[in-house]
Amino acid sequence: MKKTILYLLIALLTLLLVGVFVLYKPENRFDKKVTFSRKETRPYATNICFTTLPLMFKNAKVEVNTKEPYYWIDKDSSYKQGGQMMFLLSKQFNPNKIELDWLYSFVSNGNYVFIICPRMNETANEYFKIDFDYHYYRGDEPYNDSVKTKLIPPYYKCDSSYYNAGFTSSNYFSKYDSSNFIALGLNHKNNPNFIKASVNKGAFYFHSDPFLFANYFLLQKHNDEYFQKVISAVPSNVNKIIWDDYFVYKSAEETKQRSPLRLLLQYPSFVWATFLAIILFLLYLAIHIKRKQRFVEPVKELRNDSLYFAETIGRLYFEKGDHANLAKKMSAYFLEHIRNKYLINTSQLNNELVSRISAKSDYPEEATRQLIQTIVDIQVQDAIDQKQLNLYYTQFQNFYKYTL
Q1: Which pTM value belongs to this model?
Q2: What is the CA radius of gyration of the chain?
């Protein structure tokens, strides 16, 4: 019956779990992860931007670049031709001086570089002579949200405002050379977030808010117009679009490597102190590998002298053949054991004593009666042979083993 109930409970629990898995529908939560990845369709990725960009230049082919500029400027002659646009969108732009020179050479040949990021390293800031205001931007989060952005004359015919209901980077260009740069767009505080610098036949375009190119923003009402107008700043004769992943991956790897320990390891004194501490620790282990402790002899177990004495006396009686006396000693020891362990008065060897011993020791009553009768027989016998002694000994031992 118990097993049947158990099986029913297990079956009921199994059905309940199956029902939960079948009927449970996870809550649709807004994915706030920011990746700006061209391969993803999550809100803050750039798949729409990547797929829409070629549609704005009918005769342009698309290429994804993962190599540093040296390989596609000096090695491939096609990059020295004009009419190409590089589109670079990242959380941070971290080029070195040589890479910036290559990009400048690329633009000088009549090409265009679109750089969309909320911050750049000092090398890039000094190279282009621009500064970002980082008051609202602290790494990946938090971002401001629900603000407006707009495009302004003279490049555009009139002010065009667009609402961003999601995350936005409120960084802006706090300083730039107005003789080389012109402002094309403003953020919600009327600070420039979109600027252009012409270089010979080409141009650099800088935008400080990559969220305005993310899937979530572009899917909002009329925001696709913002994207089209921003890209329209690039001449329509573009015949090749280069979506850059080299600087995206480079910035991501450098960000991962910025751990507190890595910053400390930049100082030679800290490095030497670390190596010295490791060497001293290994030396300490090598010297103190053996335990410095005095040898302690094992403690011998205490011998039960009373038991040893009883065994000696019993062996002495047995060797002398005084079986009757030894049997009386065994019976006396048994009665003493009953008095000490079960607190039973053994002065009267009767049926009441048998019942009390059997009740307290849980030893069978019939076997207990036989044992008490044996003690009575021993007390009245003057001579006992070895066979009887062995029988008495077995009876006593059976009781001791059973009641341990």
Answers
A1: 0.57
A2: 48
